[in-house]
Amino acid sequence: MNDIPALARGCAVLGTGGGGDVRTGSLAAIRAIREYGPVPLLKLDDLPGDALILPLSGIGAPTVSHEMIHGEDEPKRIAEEAERIFGRPPSAIMSSEIGGANGVAPVAWAAQLGVPLLDADGMGRAFPEVQMVSMYVAGIPADLVIMSDVAGNVVTIRPVDGLWSERIARAVCVAAGSHALMSDYLLTADRARGAVIEGTVTRALEIGRATEGAADPLAALRDRLGATRLITGKLTDVARRTTGGFVRGTATIEGTGDDRGRRLTLELQNENLVADEGGRIRAMVPDLITVVDTETAAAIQTEALRYGQRVTVLAWPCDPLWRTPKGLETAGPRAFGYDLGYVPVEELSHG
């Protein structure tokens, strides 16, 4: 339970603005541990090869998740449906995305189900669409999606591929009020090897602990991430709307201090996707772009951005999987409709 605050801070940073509010996920995790006991954190090699791994995440617009909070029934209903289909219960829970609440809430879901949490996820960050996971990039069929909502509905989807899993799951999510719990790419431990991003829960904890007691939290966070500082300044404009199960919009930061006279615009789709400074691209997906409070280095989600906030924008390299041809096809800038050829952030920052 003492690890939850650090995990939440790290997941907020890795969320790149999305993944849901870590505060609600933290409260749920602390409450579940108090009620059900601690949750073991296992490596993939700790599981037998035939162990069933249940990836779980919230799907929908983060703005809605503040008011429509998951209860205890949704993960139980999904686990029961998985057991009905596979003939055995899940052996471990895995976060589908380590970013935001979707990285913290699995602690609660694992406690409620009485199973361990896997030290891995499917993104190494947060992405907004169902097919944007390492399992899809690895070629694992997206032939089963199980969803449950606060009304008690359980929906099982048998899509023909990952793109159809996004279309159908998004439609179900919108019908449920733009917020639901989902499991997709259910797989055994043997099949997960090479298809998931390992060690990401531990990484989130390390990122969260980096700023604890630091004299300069922002410098400590940058060092831990190996991040480039894109700008430090004040939020002067935020345009945001919830549509189609996503939060979309832009945020503009006017530079202050040494950055006075500069202006950076962030393009948003749940997460921060592209950083543009006067027509010069400074960073782009799948690399990570996060807005943090300049004084505390606490990450700020897209739905919490407000006029006048004093912020710093950081960017750093994604997991190498996302820089492969399939990874860029899945979650590179063109996957989001931007006519941009991918350039790594480390090249853009020195360009």
Give keywords.
351 residues, alpha+beta, CV3147-like fold, CV3147-like, 2 domains, 7-stranded antiparallel β-sheet, 12 helices, 31% helix, globular, S-Me-THD_N, S-Me-THD_C_sf, DUF917 family protein, S-Me-THD-like_C
Provide a descriptive summary of the structure in words.
InterPro entries: S-Me-THD-like_C, S-Me-THD_C_sf, S-Me-THD_N, S-Me-THD_N_sf. The chain has helices at 4-14, 22-36, 62-65, 73-86, 101-113, 134-137, 162-175, 189-192, 200-210, 217-225, 325-331, 345-348; strands at residues 41-42, 52-60, 92-95, 117-121, 145-148, 154-157, 179-184, 187-188, 197-198, 228-243, 246-255, 263-269, 271-277, 280-284, 288-293, 310-316. Helix 9 runs antiparallel to helix 10 (217-225). The protein is globular, with a radius of gyration of 19 Å. By secondary structure, it is an alpha+beta fold. The protein has 2 domains: 4-201, CV3147-like fold (3-Layer(aba) Sandwich), CATH 3.40.1610.10; 217-348, CV3147-like (Beta Barrel), CATH 2.40.390.10.
